[in-house]
Amino acid sequence: MDAWTQALKILVLFVWLRGPKLCESPHTLPVMWIMPLTNYPGRGNLTAEVLPAVQLALHHLKKHPSPFKNYEIQFHLEDSQCDNAKGLRAFFDAICFGPKHLMIFGGVCPSVTSIIAESLGGWNLVQLSFAATTPVLADKKKYPNFFRTVPSDNAVNPAVIKFLNHFNWSRVGTLTQDVQRFSEVRNDLTNELEKADIQIADTESFSNDPCINVKKLKDNDVRIIIGQFDETLASKVFCCAYNLNMFGSKYQWIIPGWYQGNWWEQANSTNCTTKKLLTAMEGYISVDFLPLSTKQVKGISQRTPQEYEREYNKRRLQKGVESSKFHGYAYDGIWVIANTLKRVMEILKQKEKFNRYRNFTADDKEVGKIVLDIMNETNFFGVTGQVMFRNGERMGTIKFTQFQEGKEVKVGEYNAIADVLELINNTIRFQGVEPPKDRTFVRLQRRHINLPLYSILSAITILGMFMASAFLFFNIKNRNQKLIKMSSPYMNNLIILGGMLSYASIFLFGLDGSFVSDKVFETLCTVRTWILTVGYTTAFGAMFAKTWRVHAIFKNVKMKKKIIKDQKLLIIVGGMLLIDLCILICWQIVDPLKRTVEEYNLEADPQGRDIAIRPFLEHCENTHMTIWLGIVYAYKGLLMLFGCFLAWETRNVSIPALNDSKYIGMSVYNVGIMCIIGAAVSFLTRDQPNVQFCIVALVIIFCSTITLCLVFVPKLITLRTNPDAATQNRRFQFTQNQKKEDSKTSTSVTSVNQANTSRLDGLQTDNHRLRMRITELDKELEEVTMQLQDTPEKTPYIKQNHYQDINNILSIRNYTDGKEGDKSILKNHHEQKPQAQWGSVDPSRTNKGPLEDINSPEHIQRRLSLQLPILHHAYLPSIGGVDASCASPSVSPSASPRHRHVPPSYRVMVSGL
Question: How far apart, in whole angstroms, are the C-alpha atoms of residue 200 and residue 193?
Fold first, then answer.
């Protein structure tokens, strides 16, 4: 250490400027050089490393053409030892006992340099440092006389901002070691980021273990991380990054560039192997000031930076010292001092020349002000680039290097004076196909209905509409056929219209934001709801109205004529639609449907790109959606229950053309089951539009198709195979819900819809035929009477076939007058005994006299001659002989025997009056 001190002090010549006038030429310019002669932590013996550059600068000054050859700089070296007290004492000793220094050169240790720089104003001295990079010294209010040829640590921040803007990174995070040096850089960087409108997603500081803070950065989705920490903690940071998988194509680390070579091997104090560290470090960007300019331009020393570097390396190799990145700034610093002092001397000479008394003397304050002004005006090209100061700060060049395959490669540089970033082509290697994103780039992706699915279901819907159109054509074409006419063709048309409206709603349900705009989609929310609601009510309302008419006719127990025209049914359907419209209008006015967007959790990109997919789905909703849906469902549910009730009540009406109760029941069952299943599955698949649309469409298609087919296919088949089926079965039976204990016989149906004139014609024909049959029986009855009167002795009993004719007359009477049937049937005189065969003689009676046996042939002959004409005229009005309008042909003569209600055939003995 003493040898180095002695060697350095040999270079210094003490010259004391005495007297009021300047010394004679060559002028010696004393400068204090304050440096630590010991090793500086993290930088080695900086004085020894930069000494060859200082010697080379002094050598070049001597050989430089005028005017520099007239002046000689002489340094007085002081050892600060990087200690505040020792450094301050050395500074005071040099001031008190040394020559009168014009400037101070050097200053490395931040604490010692800041103390001395703060007191420079009292001594009228200016300090120029080539190695003090601490940002604290950038405060010109506190350190107005401090300059440095090396950029400060804050000088990299504008370069970082420029680098971020180049790759369009607008969201970053910071990770800072909790020491003053890095905290100051972080604070300045924060201000620069805010000015550049770059978002700081997260700011983390740590002291020893950075893993928790690194994880927070990951949790906050920070992809671009700007770090400020030394080599020791850098290895811990990258070890944590490896364990958290925060490296590779999705992340970009930006760290200081002043680390020593192979620092990861020397400073590795973690559990991670060197291979893991290198894996996590791959691709990081380091930022630091540029030691030497890369431009092939000769500067103030008449040498290019490359030529100077060769000479410097030659000198340091001769001395056996390591190279320092500050040597170029020390070299340029000598030229700054020489240029400043030269100009100061020229100014003083000019003032002395123009002084009246030629005895000009400059005091320390005036000289200090001149030096300060000239320093601020410095501007020349040195080996480190353009040398100029802005508020005492060097506007230097910042370099960018990237860690590639175990070594750092220069990829660009930033010129602070021109504010230009120059990147070397094809040198930056990102681990992905493109630069990392500054965040997990979220791409909104609409969950929409696939076009093939929409096309398939639309094609099926179109087929359903064609089918409905075919039914409509069939219904209109055959509207005058008895089968169709009795089934209310107008109501059938409404059923078809409701089905087609339901079909049409499918097209609207499949249109989302991928097909239409947001405004149109919001309109479709209302339109498709209205169409489906109106279509459902139209179809099932018409069907239930038809059933109600059948119910109203056949619940008429008194058998009065009742005519219900289609106009009344239309009014019923219109009332149902009016209720729908009231609900829908109130819904639209009070709480209209609007387009809402539901976003889902992030998903990985299926193509492996560095983006995340956030699915979103459009819905038609409002504030009180549940209430409105409850109202609609309740109304529709009551309507379906009412239809089920009507279908059940009319289940025994057996005219197919008039009664659709069986098909209505099947339709309601299918629709109810499908709607319940469809609503439940649709709710569960709310976030899957394809599945939801498929279910809704299939439910509508199935319900509409089944309903139309159940209503029209049986009519079509019947009309093609048996056109007269509408008039073949005319027995109607209406079963009352409450039956009495004695199980009385049900009332026969006597009146059907009088609007169907064809049915009345058929009834009149049947009535006429019955009257003709009664007339024939009357003739036979008269013949029997005549035979009895002519031959009383031959036949004591009436022939069996004639009594059978009498039974037929009584049976016809029972069919034609149900109200008096019980009164007209003659009682059987053999209810308590087994009946004897007609035509046989009871032996017990043969021995009795004529007066004792009232059934003797004589008595029978006399009674028949009197009773048969009376019976004939008594039953004639009931069977149509008097008034045909009283006839009640409730049983069709063409009906099969098993469908007739025929009372048991009794062998009736005619009793006496």
Answer: 8
Helix (H) or strand (E) segment spanning residue 381:
strand 379-382
Number of compact structural domains in the chain: 3
Max CA pair span of the chain: 201
| pLDDT at site 361 | 62
Same domain, 471 and 585: yes
Do 593 and 624 belong to one domain? Answer: yes
Half-sphere exposure of 33 (CA within 13 A, CB side): 24
Whether 487 contacts 660, CB under 8 Å: yes
The pTM score is 0.60
Angle at 756 between CA 755 and CA 757, to 5 degrees: 100
Which amino acid type is present at position 909? M
Cβ within 8 Å of residue 93, ≥6 positions away: 78
User: Are both 221 and 363 inside the same structural domain?
Assistant: no
Residue with tokens 């000015």: 195
Whether the CB-CB separation of 548 and 646 falls below 8 Å is answered with: yes
Is there a contact between 46 and 131 (Cβ–Cβ < 8 Å)? yes
Neighbouring C-alpha atoms within 13 Å toward the C-beta of 215: 6
For residue 536, the enclosing domain spans 445-721
pLDDT in tens, 602-613: 887 777 777 888
- Are 483 and 715 in contact by the 8 Å Cβ rule? The answer is yes
H or E stretch including 874?
helix 857-875
Q: Is 124 left (phi over 0), alpha (psi -120 to 50) or beta?
A: left
Question: Which pLDDT belongs to residue 730?
Answer: 43
Q: How many CB atoms lie within 10 A of CB 475?
A: 22
Task: Read off the amino acid at residue 409.
Answer: V
Please give the structure tokens belonging to residue 782.
Answer: 């008269």
Strand partners, 621: 594
Q: E strand or H helix at 597, and its extent?
A: strand 594-599
What are residue 389's phi and psi, to 5 degrees? -120, 145
Angle formed by the axes of helices 518-554 and 625-649, nearest 10°: 20
Phi, psi dihedral angles at 172 (to 5 degrees):
-135, 170
CB 133 within 8 A of CB 151: yes
Which residue stretches of the chain have pLDDT < 50? 1-25, 559, 726-727, 729-755, 791-803, 805-854, 863-864, 866-913
Q: Which two tokens stand for residue 672?
A: 């109810």
Given this model, what pLDDT does residue 253 score? 96
Please provide the size of the chain in residues: 913
782: in domain = no
453 and 522 housed in the same domain:
yes
Residues 449, 693: contact at Cβ < 8 Å?
yes
Amino acid letter for position 709: C
- CA-to-CA distance for 278 and 272, rounded, in angstroms? 10
**Helix (H), strand (E), coil (C) string for 529-581:** HHHHHHHHHHHHHHHHHHHHHHHHHHCCCCCCCCCCCHHHHHHHHHHHHHHHH
pLDDT of residue 68: 62
Domain assignment present for residue 831? The answer is: no
Q: Cβ distance 702 to 670 under 8 Å?
A: yes
Tokens of 360: 């000009």
Q: H or E segment at 397?
A: strand 397-404
Residue located via tokens 């698949």 = 685
Q: Dump pLDDT digits (tens) for 558-605.
A: 545 556 777 888 888 888 889 889 988 998 888 888 888 888 888 877
| Alpha carbon distance 328, 126 (integer Å) | 21
Asked if 242 and 287 sit in the same domain, the reply is yes
Q: Residue 495 and residue 544: Cα distance in Å, rounded?
A: 10
Same domain membership, residue 291 and residue 313: no
Phi, psi of 513 (to 5 degrees): -65, -15
Residues 607 and 699 in one domain: yes
For 745, which DSSP code?
P
Q: Would residue 894 count as lying in a domain?
A: no
Decide if 543 contacts 488 (C-beta within 8 A). no
CA gap 450, 472 in Å, rounded: 33
